[in-house]
Amino acid sequence: MLTGRRYRLQLTEAQAELSEEYGNICRSVWNTGLDQRRQYRRRGGWMNYVPQAAELADAKTEHEWLKAAPSHILQQTLKDLDKACRDHGTFKVRWRSKARWSPSFRFPAGNLIIVERLGRKWGRAKLPKLGWVTFRWSRPLGGEVKSATVSRKGRHWFVSFLVSTEETTPEQHAMPDTVVGIDRGVVVAATTSDGDFHDRAFVTEGEKTRYRRLQQRLAHTKKGSANRRKAVAAMNQIMGRITDRRGDFCAQVANQITAKNALVVLEDLKTRNMTASASGTLTEPGVNVSQKRGLNRTILDKGWHRLELALANAARYTGARLVKVNPAYTSQRCSACGFVTEGNRESQSVFVCKSAGCGYTAHADVNAARNVKAAGQAVSACGDLGVSRSVKQEPVSRATGRNP
């Protein structure tokens, strides 16, 4: 099984400057390659990795600054660009801004990377052209190194090793008949059909105040000034702590849920579409822009997509299956009788079924999670682990072309 191991680096001043230079070169290669691909697409042509790699080799003879970085990390940048364009489309791939993108680059040749442990707390790795770099040994590698990615987050540098371990995904979960549905919300991050509420605060009041003051300070600085760089660095430090807390929360919740349940059901939420801006255009101004902005921030703060990724990763170690279902009416449907109406949900947390003779009452998020669970069981019974078919659709026989 392939897994990641991330450690904090202790670089020398020369190594930090060299890593910054490598990151800037990779950023330039990415942006140049993306611009070339877009120009080809506008003319109706297509550009892929092979011709771009050949042109990169020719460009190194003309531009000396390209020779400063190892060839294989530049080639890997073009490979990553090629994959991003194929997965998302050439015009949806983002530019790597110098102000917003954190430097990173990958050494793809694991056979050229040597890792040694120096003691209980420290280890070192030999990376091409960087030489021996020291890192904090916070956990064992546990396998053979396939690649290494060096990145900067805030003021700290990190190295992430892609490791091939001897672990395999279990063929069957330890409790094969267990099922859970999860409702992701803006008040409680995740609510399960078992009635468990998973949530925590990722930012303190003091951090909110300091971040707001830093934003005000940033607004009064000039672009490119030292004071602006200091303000941005301080803001990134605060946001880094918030991001780490959110990632730790999602990992812990994912491990708990996948350890206890063989089937985990989520709503198929398009987080990027749900958090799109409502500002509109010059000719068609947006509606309820401030309310939509607040909702977007809340959704992103709760880490909906990150929890989904954490569940998919944790499921590899327990043998659990992750199913996504259509989210339509899960918050309005009664999980007891199936009656659907907007009036069933009286408030954010109160659900009371308005069907005559039912009167089912529950926490609104728990009721929604139970509807998600029921939909996931129906999809799993049809043998469909995706969201391409209706929950009620039966599998079609290939021989007859009809439902069995």
Automatic annotation (TrEMBL):
Keyword Kinase (UniProt): no
Keyword annotations of the record: DNA recombination, DNA-binding, Metal-binding, Transposition, Zinc
Domain of life: Bacteria
Entry protein name: Transposase
GO biological process, one term: transposition
Domain Transposase putative helix-turn-helix: 1-44
Family the UniProt entry places it in: In the N-terminal section; belongs to the transposase 2 family.
Domain Cas12f1-like TNB: 304-372
Ranges annotated as spanning the membrane: none
GO molecular function: DNA binding; metal ion binding
InterPro entries attached to this UniProt entry: Cas12f1-like_TNB (IPR010095), RNA-guided_DNA_endo/Transpos (IPR051399), Transposase (IPR001959), Transposase_put_HTH (IPR021027)
PANTHER family given in the database record: RNA-GUIDED DNA ENDONUCLEASE INSQ-RELATED (PTHR30405:SF25), TRANSPOSASE (PTHR30405)
Limits of the Probable transposase IS891/IS1136/IS1341 domain: 164-276
